[in-house]
Amino acid sequence: MNRIEKRMEELQKNNEKAFITYMTAGLPDMERMKELIKAQEEAGTDVVELGIPFSDPTADGPVIQDASYRSICRGTNLKKVFTAVEELRKDCEIPLIFMMYYNTILYYGVDAFAQKCAEVGVDGLIVPDLPKEEQDELTDALADVKNAPILIQLVAPVSCNRVPMILENARGYVYCVSSMGVTGQAATFHKNVRNYLESVKAVSKIPVMMGFGIRTAADVENLKDTIDGCIVGTYFIELMEENYYNLDVAKEYIRTFKRELNA
Questions:
Q1: Is 198 one of the catalytic residues?
Q2: pTM to 2 decimals?
């Protein structure tokens, strides 16, 4: 059982909802990125999704695209992120997920990538442009490595009858995309979001997380009975940018969100 699964189990035992954040690797720089991750652990974030910058992020809206571009311009690459995570793991145990595109993994080498993730302490992977039918190369590589990260599955309102197939043997949690299109759409959820989430919940053996467009706990207040937690990305990046990556601002936001989410 890796860190993600352990945290999910602890939350379920305590009847608590998970709060997960997304942030772009390398911003505002590598050192302060590590400080921000540690601050989130202190404040109670359950999992951090760390976006690996990519030149053509097809699932991301303007805010995350811009963050990815700025990080690349500052020299961020996968090797540097691996080094930062390895350093972070000396005194930080928060579950970490790489959210990234498959080209980056292919360029690094699939087998070498799986091995390196295990070595430095990456707990999970989200690969938005890798559908279930094309995951075998990556899942085979991960299966061959001890302590390899788990692959988090994404489902969307259009997944419909594919959900049971997508979630077969899924681990960690299922990431439910709550709207059509890209990230950062300010709580403009799919019109049938409740039915969609309930249908995923009915077949999922693992916790169900809701993401895309969430800013505050109030955004999911009417859906808390159908989800096990939620993910905030675009708004968290905006908040950090507006406040110059102030750690106290980050901690206050996280504590408030988690308290209200579990009220």
A1: no
A2: 0.95
